[in-house]
Amino acid sequence: PLGKFVYGDLYIYALGFDGVIHAQGEVPALIGTNSLEYTDSKGRKANKEIIAKLKKTDEGVWIEYTSKNANKLA
């Protein structure tokens, strides 16, 4: 939790398939909380979508979402 997960405006976050946050560079206080129901500003549940896609592949996935009025890529 005390690692350096931020570089400029980029940061790392890591979730388990259960939605629990294991690393969060922008807001470390979120570590240990569940993010499955996080909804972006357009009503999209990006974390649920990421987890569902990852369960169907052995490779990484990309998803675009909106947070803080900015387009993001995870």
Description of the structure:
The chain has 74 residues and is an alpha+beta fold. Helices cover 12% and strands 26% of the residues. It has one helix and six strands, in the order ββββαββ. The protein has one helix spanning 46-54; strands at residues 6-7, 10-11, 13-15, 21-24, 64-67, 70-73. Strands 1-2 form a two-stranded antiparallel ribbon. A hairpin with a 2-residue loop joins strand 5 and strand 6 (70-73). The relative contact order is 0.16. The model has no long low-confidence stretch (mean pLDDT 88).
Sketch the major β-sheet.
2 strands, antiparallel
Uncertain parts: none
Mean pLDDT comes to 88
H/I helix tally = 1
Radius of gyration, taken over Cα atoms and rounded to an integer in Å: 12 Å
What is the oligomeric state here? single chain
The proportion of residues in beta strands is 25-35%
Write down the secondary-structure element order: EEEEHEE
Strand order of the largest sheet: 1-2
C-alpha end-to-end distance: 20 Å
Helical content stands at 10-25%
Shape, principal axes of CA atoms: globular
Helix and strand content put the structural class at alpha+beta
Structure described in brief:
With 74 residues, this protein is of the alpha+beta class. The protein has one helix at residues 46-54; strands spanning 6-7, 10-11, 13-15, 21-24, 64-67, 70-73.
